[in-house]
Fold each of these.
Amino acid sequence: MAYVEFLRVRKAFYFFAGIIAAMIGFLLLSLFAAHGGSDGNIRLQLGSAIVLQKGTDGRIHQMPLNGIKDLDIPLGALFGIAAYCAAVFATVISTTLNRERDGLDFTLTRPVSRERIALEYFAVDLAGIFAAFAFAFIVMCLVPLATAGLLGRITSTPQAWAILALGLGMSFMWYGIIQAATAAMRGGGGWVAGGSWAFFGVLLLLPGVTYFGPVFHYGVVALNLVNPIAYFSSLTIHAKDAAASSSSLLAGLGVLPRAAITWLIGLAACAIAIASWKRIEV
Amino acid sequence: MNAISIRTLSKRYGEQLAVADLTLEVGTGSICALLGPNGAGKSTTFKCLLGLARPTAGSVEVEGAPVSAATFQSLGYVPERSTLYDWMTVREHRTLARRLYHTFDAARFDELCATFKLDSRKRVKRLSKGQRTALALALAFAIRPRIFVLDEPASGLDPIFQRVALDLMIDAAAGGATILFSSHQIGQVERAADRVAILKNGRLVLDGNVDELKGERKVVEAIFEADAVSPNGLARDPRVSRIERTGRILRAYVNNDAPGVAREVETLGPRAVTTYDLSLEDIFLNAVADGEHPNAASVGTSQGEV
């Protein structure tokens, strides 16, 4: 059954990759086009610095970064960008079991147990999420930076690799939660997956609302523990600020523990999805 | 050993009893047709048999064992409604089946696709209803299973391909396979099945060998000069299962002693009396006819009261 999911994920990946590649291509083209100088030359500017310029000879020349001093591009931030792209892809493919509801007679009369079908689907989907992350990292981050000659400005810290684990964990957690929520539903999985962005986005903001009293406040603070975005968004709140911050239970938590929690929640959610899937009747 | 054993199976959906206390044994190598009007419980029986629905009571076994994933390595199923992947091509379904079944015969599949004129590059969503049924049949028969469960296997097929589907079933049974199928096309059933089980409101109302059922049951038909008279005595006769009056024609469906019933009909003064064998369609209609008392039931366009 992994073959079916492979075809499905491949189709989704082509769509995802096409959109990202088109976005980046359009961005680079528009930068070149929009910054045509009065002298008729075309240049790519980063802030006040001209980083690429089309010369009179018709060739693209890389310009020295005189205007940008001490520009460091943290690898972790690039992983963060790729992680959100991977999360988008994860939500696109996260309704696998729900989609099978249309043809359960066919799916469940194969010589493969229901658990194995679900596990095979999850494994293929996880590989797809990794591929989406890698593609987004390369095409959205490395290609534009290489075009601008800024690859050398990327700085790596040990934290960057923890952010990589957290970014993938966030995507997997999101994937698992939607699988668990939709596995037993009859259709409508796409709405849940799409709506999850709005739901988790609003949920992230709700701890700041004090109007509804402390019960509501602590309720939404607790609920944010299963909000994948919360694990990424509060990264900038340092431990020393944690005591002062009552808006997130994650505020004082390091990146690696957060990453571990996202993976654990993702696994637990997938286990719940399998349990629901096993009970389904046609 | 029976290939399929269904014992005291009941399935309830809320207040509705879809299948009630059904017991059915299908012997290895036989072709058994499960018949019944819409909503009789045929598809629910199949779902319980295949583990797609949990029985409320009773049990099902395939080749002496409860249904598990391994069962489907030797069982081919064609559901009533196409549940193939719409977005996949015929060729991709072939690849899927080849990966799932170690008995999958790719050459056989290609041959069946050619017979049913299926374009392997086409996505399922571009196929007609009949072509989808044909693809499901090609997949089921290409795995060369020992048991087939076919829910309306000719659904949507044109008469030519209906005949092909029928021939596939007969050929598979000749090779030792067991087939349990449902169909509303009694002609096909009569040609292929050696046994029928008829369901009505979830209950088994008739089960037996086709030839024996047809041999036992007769119709005594009388034609009168004017409208057929009311055969009050026959209506309560235990030998008669149903009486039908349509204009000048009176038909008595007889379970046994047809000559005796014919003699009684003669006393009513008809112009002519004929006795003939029941067709399977007659047997089916007789079995599922409405009415609390079987003798009180009648069918026809302008039946009289019996």
Amino acid sequence: MSSASNDRVVVLAGGLSPERDVSIRSGRRVADALRSAGVDTAVLDVDAGLLAALADHRPACVVPLLHGAVGEDGAIRDVLVALGLPVVGSGPAACRRAFDKPIASSLVATAGVVVPESMALPHTTFRELGAGAVLDAVVERLGLPLMVKPTRGGSSLGATVVRTAADLPAAMVAAFAYGDIALVERFVTGTEVAVSVVDDAGGPRALPVVEVVPDGGFYDYGARYTAGATEFFTPARLRGEVLASCAEVAVAVHRTLGLRDWSRSDLIVDAEGTPWFLEVNVAPGMTETSTYPQAVLAAGLDLGALTASLVDRAITRS
Amino acid sequence: MEPTQQPGAGTRLDPWVDSYAARTRGLTASQVRALFAVASRPEVVSLAGGMPFVSALPLDAIADTVARLVRDRGAVALQYGSGQGDVRLREQILEVMAPVGVMAHPDDIVVTAGSQMALDLVVRVFCDPGDVVLVEAPTYVTALGVFSSYQCEVVHVAMDDEGLRPDALREAIATTRAAGRTVKLVYTIPSFHNPGGVCQGPMRRAEVLDVVRSAGLLLLEDDPYGLLGFDGSVPRAIRADESEGVVYLGTFSKTIAAGLRVGWAVAPHGVREKLVLANETATLCPSNLTQLTISEYLATQPWFEQVKVFREVYRERRDALLESLGALMPAGTRWSVPAGGFYSWVTLPDGLDATAMLPRAVAALVAYVPGTGFFADGQGRQSLRLSYCYPEPERIREGVRRLAGVIETELEVATTFGSPTARAERPSASAPYTDLA
């Protein structure tokens, strides 16, 4: 049994983000899993009382399961590191690289990962140059269909598939409701998969690839978090060499961005079997309908034992 | 139950996914609900929920009442009771309804777990799948949930600044019947409407009643806010002038405490018998503990003086809301001026969408309920409901300040990209959009 079993671990969940509810559910599930693995675990929210609570608890390790900017842009991890607390997951700088989709895409592309062509456009660009002209240029350059989403965010919040030019303005408005910069990328048709990665003694390794088939065709918020609204196949229904390729891509993303402990890459595999990188998540969802726990189960692992091993690694390296 | 999976077999992570009733089809996780999880944080000024200001209650007196009740009458208070509700409480409810003019016999009353349960039971007793319920445009969000759960079709009827329009109601009845559909109920919230904030005057109530009588329909009158008029006057209930054709719903949630979950229905004999049986099927009986708590409270506390305290609490908050709306809202924003109750209905400047705007609002630490929640047919995108009952006046002013900033930003986005409302509004053949401001 790990040394963490005798010390308190704090899971951070909640925060002030549109994904608060998802984070709370993720945090509770991981905390329950840790307790089942014999680890004394508390769950804390991120609020004005957090630092005092951490001083009281003086945990052996912190496991942030905050989704959205509050947990994934590196800021909270900077604070935890400053407090001298061991933290499961990627470091602050790696989080910043991963959370900004255009930056993450450009970095992984240099490592040979295939990414959709895209444009990152602040709202001010449309205001200054005229929305119509800019949108015409976007369609001219990227064609249709397109995927429009906030550059920073998750759970498909603010994301829209655009199939006609007339729908593009509304999609931009929806994306800007969640942030000041919108990412417009060429839509890739294919099989949607989630590839979970975990660090162990041998380095990062991919868990079984999960194929995602939402009933409505788009893996939006409702499809992600309503049980029954999406069908999952683990392993994905792809040829063996394609599955291996997906795993390689996810591990390459994890290494290239300097991620640590766990991550989840979302990919689309086209008809030729090429995995296209969409985005990576440094605090993967752990809800009842999330793909990371499904991959853990398919790998024959236990979520509590896996998380406890990451806690041990975080304590050892601190 | 962990999902089981064989190689090549898919899973939906829910072994019962193919077993659910058809009526559950719309029950999905939503982005809007997710945003309300953030609204519960203290940093956010929530002008969303209609939570009564229970801190204004004499909590020590209530604590003593409950303690005394359990100590002296625990064998009754903690036991099953009558499916129709405690007799003494039903007698006291007659006194509580006296200001709104409802005269009845205790046997006409069915006590329920909140008036929400009474509403549910009435619909359960009357409506078959496909039956039409005529409701105001907009209407109480959770009533829509009840109608949906019984697979009713909802038809919205226009309101104006005096509430439900009799001409629109007459037309809706005729149109619905001409299409071969069965209208079962007309549902109205005549006093200090949720979410509209408007109030039907005496003449309007008489006209509405006349339309319903002429059509041979049952009127379901929901009256949670009738005693909370800020000028001290109490609107006369429609039920006061019609006993056979109206089922009246009342509640102690706003005049005493929502957490006690005690409401009631006043219904004509035949309806009442069925409601009692349905009540017994649903809950066996309403809670004796909370019924007796309320009964003791009514008997020993100056309950109507407490209602006056609540009126003043909510009036002060209403004033804070209206003053700050007037001072801060961008041009083109309109709002209803409530004379009582908890809510104001706000219509955004042309081109704005309250649902699309909500993420930006929550990021700015203010919350409201988008107007689409109060319609069954997709209307209401340009509107939202503001609730002033719970936050302190200064917080209300701060919330309106934040909201004004959000609207300004949204106007800028709309100017840049064109009108999202014009793109997103679905055409409705049933009821015209209602501007209550």
Amino acid sequence: MGNVRHVRLACLLVAIAPLCAWGALGWAAEPQLPAGLAPGEEEPRLPAGLEAPSSPPDAPARPAEPELPPGLVAPPEEARPVEEAGPVLPFEITGFWEVRGGARLRDDEHERDASLGETRLQVQADKDVSGVELRVTADLLLDAVADRHAVDLETGDGFLDLREASLVFSPASMLDVKAGRQILTWGTGDLVFLNDLFPKDWNSFFLGRDEEYLKAPSDAAKVSAFTPWANLDIVYTPRFDADRFIDGRRVSFFDLPGERIVGRDAALQVDRPDEWFVDDEWAARLYRNVASYELALYGYDGFWKSPAGRQPATGRATFPKLSVYGASVRGPLGRGIANAEVAYYDSGDDRGGGDPDVRNSELRLLLGYEQEIARDLTFGLQYYLERMLGHGAFLGTLPPGAPGRDENRHVLTQRLTWLTMDQNLLWSLSVFVSPSEVDAYLRPRVKYKVSDNLSVEAGGNVFVGRDDHTFFGQFEDNSNVYIGVRYGF
Amino acid sequence: MTRLMVFRTCAHLALAALAASPGFAAPAAAGAEEPPPVEEIVHRANLVSYFQGRDGRAQVSMQITDNQGRTREREFTILRRDEAASDAIDGAAYRGAQSYYVYFHRPADVNKMALLVWKHLDRDDDRWLYLPALDLVKRIAAADKRTSFVGSDFFYEDVSGRDIELDKHELIDVTDDYYVLKSTPRDPAAVEFSYYNAFIHKGTFLPVQIEYYDKNGEKHRVYKALQVETLQGYPTVTRASMTNLQTGSTTVLAYSEVRYDVGLPEDVFTERFLRRAPRQYLR
């Protein structure tokens, strides 16, 4: 008891002592030398000129003094003439050249053994013309694994993948317009998208191309308005831009009606909504910051981005109508960043859920947290819920014996990123696990920056699952490893 | 480039103390030298290192040389804007929230990436990184500021400033050219050093050399100002180095096209200009 009281008193004194010292400093108008404060400090220090207790024994009594640098020796020099930038090209060119190869880890009777075998030259050119910024990013590609070589700018097939061809201008000070082919992203998820309905390239993602290829380009106009109260983005896509979805040509998948895995032998045939200004898409985001928190509301009107239905007559896959409404918040929590996002997927062609040929409406929820848990080691955790609405009606439409779907699909994701060797060697592991579907997806990756221009990397995409029909389980035979070399310029 | 400063637990008390000592009355020190109070040295060094002018911009080139002589280079443009309109030391009026915008040019794999930092006095920084290939605005946790900045020997905190209140500062020596400060972290567990000595140039209050000592008392990091120029009336370090004595790696920073009081609008430091680089200020 007495000890506790002593400790409390000591704590109080320690807390008050510096305040007293500072009070004295303020009122005395003649502050003591810092060393003179030592007696009153809670942490007594030896005065100036004496060795600190932690100094090495051979440390000089006075810290050795540096030479004055140029500019401080004499009266300050006149300013050096400003160095002019080097000769300027008519436009700025950057890019990279890359070689990438990958192989399947399991024998997939539906696909080639090689998962990747390609070389790619990306060239990006930028130019400002009287207040308008022009940008073109084009990938020239030789793909030894692909079956189709005719250039298709929508699907990315062929030797040319046009990633961006856009112009940006400001018709008014509070307005930005970006028009043309462009990559678009918003939302708070890490590799999980709720309100971001811009096209994704799932083939590239699962086969081990660089993460930037998860995003496929949109041909759209984005108008952004900035006001003191909130900012608004509106994206209009005059003709539907689907995902570069899994169709069996490169990645085999579970064909629901056929109830079997199919691949390039039976690639998915689709009816794509493709009428200009009729089969169009609208996406909007209203957002603002409140202190350190970013708040956003989202809306989308268009189509399911990957096939989510079937034409009963032809058996071709369809992209039914879809509207999405959602919201998100992101900001600091503890020592990390937390995010939450919700979205309501309104499947307009099947509101009741009783149409077996159209995907049901859904409610989606994402909770995430990321923190640097040690120096250069970042850990991220997410919980994702996909809840089917009208689940009872859905079950009623299932043919006998057909694999059903749970009402709730739960997915946990984690991402570990570790930078070593002066941040030149990057280790990363993303894991997606669904306890409800009993399947998982692992993305290990290691990348070494040999020099400023040259990097090498290796990684894998590993799918495991109990059943053939679950989201990750269906891709089990597509598990692969890859290596890549990239030279940037 | 630097970190320095003040004693105390409560900032406003310290500032009140400063304000209440008109003209920073000279201490009753023995000898010819009558150095200003340590907190004034610390504030002035903080001002000239990180807060000069209403705003500023510079072209930065960084050369990282490892112990085997291999070099890596970084090039970026840095924009800074101060919330405080004043550069006054009195009442620490210069000190306030700041915004930083860093636009990367080189190496190729970070070209056109942009980093936005909102520095607050009362809470953790807000940081965003824009990845142009994905059009992704990524929020970054600000937790550890003593991690390498873009793989160099400089830490985040070296580039944008260490909060002067995180350390206790003592004036341990006065030479013909320098005030020598010893700064000890208030929370030793939060940092890799046990203390650091800073040689503050008397005329300009620029830190000319800062030596960090590790937990064993060994000197392990050294910052040096290599070149100083007076630009628009502001003494400015235009070349500086940071050496890691434990790894043998050195980073040399060179600032060019330094301009102060550019008139950077507040909205340059928002998501709008993360996604669309404010080119007129980056050239």
